[in-house]
Write a structure and sequence with these properties.
Blueprint (H helix, E strand, L loop, with lengths): L2 H10 L2 H11 L14 E4 L21 E4 L5 E3 L17 H4 L8 E3 L15 H13 L8 E2 L5 E9 L5 E4 L2 E2 L2 E2 L11 E4 L6 E7 L4 H11 L9 E9 L2 E6 L6 H8 L7 E6 L12 H39 L4
Parallel strand pairs: 4-13, 6-14
Antiparallel strand pairs: 1-2, 2-3, 5-6, 6-11, 7-10, 8-9, 12-13, 12-14
Length: about 325
């Protein structure tokens, strides 16, 4: 990235985004919190997830973690006592936490369902024509540019709609990094809730995947959470209805932007928690995968044991009732 592009991207940051990130990553006088206000309940995940405190993967699906019913802070049982981030329920509006952020109803469509305009690959002349049409509709300097190899570059805007907190490295004290792990074995991190109206412009290539967009956003904000915790969604408005679709890891957001045009109502990008997507198991090592299978086996055996005990107790009570009854 050139220095001019860097200055341009810096100036595009919203005031609120700059304030939130600066306070979280640079201000050593952050208000001290005690992890108050949470209402944690046992959580059974349809998909495995990551702990918002230590950042480690939560192994197992059956009541292996806790989640605040208000702010959705998710953590291991062992991490509950170490939480210092207060619940965000009282800070934001009730509408935001209830998911009512639009007058229109949002409909999640199929993950693999792509819009008609991007189902077919474009030829180089078609791309060149669309780039010209796109730039003709731009009122700013966020143009797209063709490259000699047939690829093109441009800007996309990504809005953050995160219900759970994000984490940055622990601050340094006296020039020494106080990161690493506490005596309890939990990594030291600084967590905060990102404002839901925060957004970021990225200068990317037509070859940049949605997974690379997520990784670039986390890197720019020095967020240390696992990229698998997040997913990139496309949002569109049609016939007074809002449609939201999760992009696959290999989709090209800039190509979607080019085919849809610059109108944000036709297409916009949102980053949210990856609560509905499949976990990329190929990213884990063989020992981790074997450990996961062992945990699932133990959970299955425990679950079967509980069911057998419940039915055995019911059978015993019915037999006692039958033995105590008189004929006729």
């Amino acid at each position: 990235m050139s220095w001019g592009e860097f200055i341009e991207l810096r100036d595009l940051r919203s005031t609120r985004e700059q304030a939130a990130l600066a306070d979280a990553t640079q201000d050593p006088q952050l208000p001290e919190e005690k992890g108050e206000g949470h209402n944690f309940q046992p959580c059974s995940h349809a998909q495995p997830t990551w702990c918002d405190l230590c950042g480690d993967f939560i192994w197992g699906l059956y009541k292996q973690s806790l989640r605040c019913v208000n702010c959705r802070f998710t953590c291991h049982y062992r991490c509950r006592a170490l939480i210092r981030l207060d619940c965000s329920w009282d800070r934001g509006s009730v509408a935001d936490h209830a998911g009512v952020v639009e007058h229109n109803v949002e409909t999640d469509t199929n993950v693999d369902e792509r819009t008609d305009s991007v189902k077919q690959e474009l030829t180089t002349p078609e791309v060149l024509q669309k780039v010209k049409e796109y730039n003709a509709q731009i009122n700013s300097n966020l143009f797209m540019n063709m490259n000699k190899d047939g690829s093109y570059t441009g800007f996309i805007k990504v809005q953050f709609k995160l219900a759970r907190p994000v984490s940055v490295p622990a601050p340094k004290k006296g020039g020494h990094d106080v990161g690493g792990r506490r005596a309890s074995g939990v990594k030291r991190r600084t967590s905060f809730y990102l404002p839901k109206d925060a957004s970021k412009h990225l200068h990317i290539s037509s070859r940049t995947t949605s997974r690379e967009v997520i990784e670039a956003l986390l890197k720019k904000f020095t967020v240390v959470d696992n990229p698998g915790k997040f997913a990139l969604f496309e949002r569109s408005e049609r016939h007074d209805q809002v449609y939201v679709r999760k992009l696959s890891d290999e989709e090209r957001p800039l190509r979607l932007r080019l085919c849809s045009g610059p109108n944000e109502k036709v297409l916009s990008f949102v980053i949210k928690e990856n609560e509905t997507g499949e976990v990329n198991w190929h990213a884990f090592s063989m020992p981790e995968l074997k450990n996961f299978l062992l945990i699932l086996q133990r959970e299955e055996e425990e679950h079967v044991k509980q069911i057998v005990q419940r039915y055995a107790l019911a059978r015993t009570k019915m037999q006692e009732a039958l033995s105590g009854s008189t004929p006729g």
